[in-house]
Amino acid sequence: RYDITQIPDVYDSCKYDLLHNAHLNIESLDELFKVAQLLADGVIPNEYGINPKQKLKIGSKIARRLLGKILIDLRNTREEAINVAGLKNNYEHYTRSSKKEDANAPSIAHMKNEGVKESSLTADLAIDQDDDDEKETEYRLDPKYANVKTPERHVKTR
Length: 158
Description:
Elements: H1 7-20, H2 29-43, H3 52-100, H4 108-135, H5 143-146
């Protein structure tokens, strides 16, 4: 007995290997692809329902989940951009105000303390953002599995 739900995966894998790994000269891959293609021609059109009502129901569920993920990603990207822009504006304001105060120029120790405050502000914003990300783990890609080491990096998923 065979599991026909695996036919599209076998077909996709064979096609990928034929296109991108032809240099490996995998034995009998052409023959396997031809058989998988014949089977896929019958299975894939019915993969998301047999009649129009089933296809609409299944497609609606998939689209709703995808739209939810897209909306959450857009909101998170917007919040990250606002946070980064806010940090940049605070830094520019600090540099402008210190140029105006030439007569009362802050000491080097004072500037170092300001740098510490600024970096702690950055860390606080990152922690707040991490808290937001934890609330939406249902739709977010876990950076540990994606090997993402920088928190500001955006990862596109299919």
